[in-house]
User: Which sequence fits this backbone?
């Protein structure tokens, strides 16, 4: 019996991979030639209009005479500016994530009685079945918590007495239950990883239904269960900012695509988690953290702009970093002059950093934000408007909250489940058609070759020839 998946030999795998790479290559010029909007993007970088939504708007530019004109970013939940929501919560010194969840799900801000009832419902749903903890969370620890979260969500299907009912009432019940339980699943999965991979103590604290989501996370992660109100309110802001970001982001679109097929809630959310894990999406926050660690290791003074600029240039030239040439945490598909989420997190990061001794860490990030656009122009020769995105400062905030790097992206997921839930419900109510974009096939027609006449590494014409330019044999017509 094997306790791991039996591997393919490296030699055979290399040989098969080379063949796949050759047969899967498509010239980038062909995408333009046939009018394909690669990545569902228009030629100017804007997203292809694929749907309508009442849930969220993400604004980073406006159109004038057919051109994109940059502007400072605006993020609105159900028409309400996220800055106004967070400002109100800060002024009134209260938690806001549950209120934001209510707003995104039900379309309007809750009254005091409504939000209290909603919080009580979330607290009641927070508890996991004991068999789930023992059989799902404690067995088969995962090196990546996002994969474990996806597995937990899929397995939760088996604990649901009515998993496939697509009525709004049932999907809402499932959504609220998953929204309530994901923070617990995440924290328990991390405890199991601590024991399995780090050889450290594992501890599960009994849940307290009266706590907010932010408090639940901090209490579950700390051995002494202690946290300050200031810490919990900071994490609460992070959760509010990550809760939703429009229907076009990759994980939410994945959620809507799966929902449009008529699949169950658990499958739709597990697919969205898989998307969010990717380094081009939610997983970018870990990339930022590791990039900053590398800069600190290779720069004598993290506050020296010249030293940082020189190292950033190396990263862009693919002489350092992970070889991608990307400065993680910089740039966004929609935002141009500023990402409102990054602006808020930068303000909070500065407050905490100078209060608790993280000044150098903050100044390094601030310099990355300040220097990257000019270095990008110098190396690439392009005057691209570029701003910091939400990932640049979120890692520092999590570090100051003593949240392990393993949970940077999972915390994103525990917040974004709210947005996924709202979009799934909207798709069920207003979608009505399976989402199915088209792909143009550019493979040339071939004759079938009997198996005993085939030769290895047979070379065939790989360049696509339009139908009206092909030469056919009489027997082919």
Assistant:
């Amino acid at each position: 019996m094997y306790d791991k998946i039996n591997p393919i030999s490296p030699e055979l795998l290399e040989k098969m991979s080379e063949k796949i790479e050759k047969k899967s290559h498509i010239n980038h010029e062909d995408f333009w030639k046939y009018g394909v909007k690669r990545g569902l993007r228009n030629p100017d970088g804007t997203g292809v209009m694929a749907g309508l939504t009442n849930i969220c708007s993400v604004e980073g530019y406006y159109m004038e005479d057919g051109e994109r004109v940059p502007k400072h970013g605006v993020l609105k939940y159900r028409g309400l500016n996220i800055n106004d929501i967070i400002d109100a919560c800060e002024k009134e010194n209260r938690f806001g994530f549950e209120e934001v969840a209510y707003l995104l799900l039900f379309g309007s801000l809750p009254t005091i009685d409504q939000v209290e009832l909603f919080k009580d419902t979330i607290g009641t749903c927070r508890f996991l079945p004991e068999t789930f903890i023992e059989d799902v969370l404690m067995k088969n620890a995962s090196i990546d918590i996002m994969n474990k979260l996806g597995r937990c969500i899929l397995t939760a299907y088996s604990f649901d007495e009515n998993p496939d009912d697509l009525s709004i009432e049932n999907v809402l019940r499932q959504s609220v239950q998953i929204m309530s339980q994901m923070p617990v699943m995440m924290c328990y999965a991390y405890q199991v990883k601590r024991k399995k991979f780090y050889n450290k103590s594992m501890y599960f604290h009994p849940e307290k239904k009266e706590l907010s989501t932010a408090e639940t996370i901090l209490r579950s992660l700390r051995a002494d269960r202690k946290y300050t109100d200031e810490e919990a309110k900071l994490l609460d802001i992070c959760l509010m900012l990550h809760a939703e970001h429009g229907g076009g982001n990759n994980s939410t679109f994945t959620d809507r695509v799966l929902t449009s097929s008529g699949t169950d809630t658990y499958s739709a959310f597990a697919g969205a988690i898989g998307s969010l894990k990717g380094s081009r999406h939610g997983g970018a926050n870990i990339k930022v953290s590791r990039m900053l660690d590398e800069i600190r290791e290779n720069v004598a003074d993290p506050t020296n702009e010249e030293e940082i600029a020189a190292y950033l240039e190396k990263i862009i030239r693919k002489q350092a970093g992970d070889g991608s040439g990307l400065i993680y945490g910089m740039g966004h598909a929609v935002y141009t002059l500023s990402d409102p989420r990054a602006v808020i997190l930068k303000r909070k990061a500065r407050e905490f950093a100078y209060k608790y001794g993280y000044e150098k860490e903050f100044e390094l990030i601030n310099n990355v934000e300040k220097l990257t656009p000019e270095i990008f122009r110098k190396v690439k020769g392009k005057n691209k408007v570029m701003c910091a995105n939400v990932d640049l400062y979120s890692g520092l905030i999590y570090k100051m909250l003593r949240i392990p790097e393993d949970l940077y992206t999972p915390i994103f997921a525990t917040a974004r489940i709210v947005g996924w839930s709202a979009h799934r419900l909207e798709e069920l109510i207003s979608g009505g058609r399976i989402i199915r974009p088209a792909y143009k096939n550019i493979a040339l027609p071939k004759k079938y070759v009997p198996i005993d006449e085939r030769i290895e590494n047979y070379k065939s014409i790989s360049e696509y020839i339009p139908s009206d330019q092909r030469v056919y044999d009489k027997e082919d017509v």
Notes: The beta strands are 56-64, 67-77, 80-81. The longest strand covers residues 67-77. The chain has a mean pLDDT of 92.
